[in-house]
Design brief:
about 260 residues, alpha/beta, Rossmann fold, OB fold (Dihydrolipoamide Acetyltransferase, E2P), 2 domains, five-stranded antiparallel beta sheet, about 30% strand
Length: about 260
């Protein structure tokens, strides 16, 4: 192990549950030297910021990453140009079971940046990645992770109470005087009004219609009078809400890259 990694925790078991304040970071790059360099820079940043509860693991193939994908992963630094399955294909596979992880691409070419839209990439770093650039990115990402954890809410539903974060939500629809909330794990009848749900989740969701509230991260496309979700489901978009929705969605997309 590189001397600068001494004292840092790495995964001995890939299915360890994350502690309350613990963060998990994975790096995937088929160039072993590049992979090690990024790991060393992440470790250096954590040491300089005195961040003790950070676990780091590197992978040199997409297949290894997918086979040993860590539970509760917070950040994935992913190379794009890799033999066999590239970084875009790998991310598409990951997004089928993990929509929460913050994804940052690394590549020698800027031409791939636009592809990040399809997999909700947070940012795109050109190689060679320098410590100055990476440390600035980590500072922003760690702050975002902290905000996410602080934004979890507990809701009262027909099954009792459950806690979730905004990124868990796909959409919500009116169900009588209550709301049927659809998440990536299932659906819940929540004892709240649509207006209160809209206020609760703020700018992460948008009320596209009197009866529908959608998560911006779940939007795949927009047509003349409808919104298409990643699942392919199509929902009506009110004409008088369209301009505001487009503005908010473009602001959201702009923050991903």
């Amino acid at each position: 192990m590189c001397p600068c990694l001494q004292g840092m925790k790495v995964w001995d078991e890939f299915d360890l549950q994350r502690g309350i304040s613990e963060m998990k970071i994975a790096i995937c790059d088929d160039d072993q030297k590049s992979c090690q360099l990024v790991e060393e820079m992440v470790t250096r940043y954590c040491q300089e910021e005195k961040l003790q509860d950070v676990r780091i693991k590197s992978f040199t193939t997409p297949l290894e990453l997918l086979e040993k994908y860590p539970r509760d992963l917070d950040l994935l630094l992913l190379d794009i140009e890799m033999p066999g399955m590239d970084g875009i294909q790998t991310a598409r596979e990951i997004r089928t079971f993990d929509r929460k992880v913050i994804l940052i691409y690394m590549s020698n070419y800027a031409k791939y940046a636009i592809d990040g839209y399809s997999v909700q990439a947070y940012n795109y770093l050109l190689k060679p990645v320098t410590y100055e650039i990476l440390s600035r990115e980590l500072r922003t990402v760690f702050r975002l992770i902290g905000q996410r954890r602080g934004s979890s809410v507990t809701l009262h539903c027909e099954d009792g109470y459950f806690t979730l974060s905004p990124e868990d939500i796909v959409m919500a629809e009116t169900k009588g005087k209550n709301v049927l909330l659809h998440t990536h794990e299932g659906s819940h009848l929540v004892y709240k009004s649509m207006k209160s749900m809209e206020e609760l989740f703020g700018t992460t969701m948008f009320r596209i219609h009197t009866a529908y509230l959608v998560s911006l991260s779940s939007v795949k496309g927009i047509s003349k009078d409808s919104v298409i979700l990643q699942s392919g489901k199509e929902l009506p978009l009110s004409r008088h809400r369209k301009k505001e929705f487009m503005n908010q969605y473009m602001e959201y997309i702009g923050g991903l890259l």
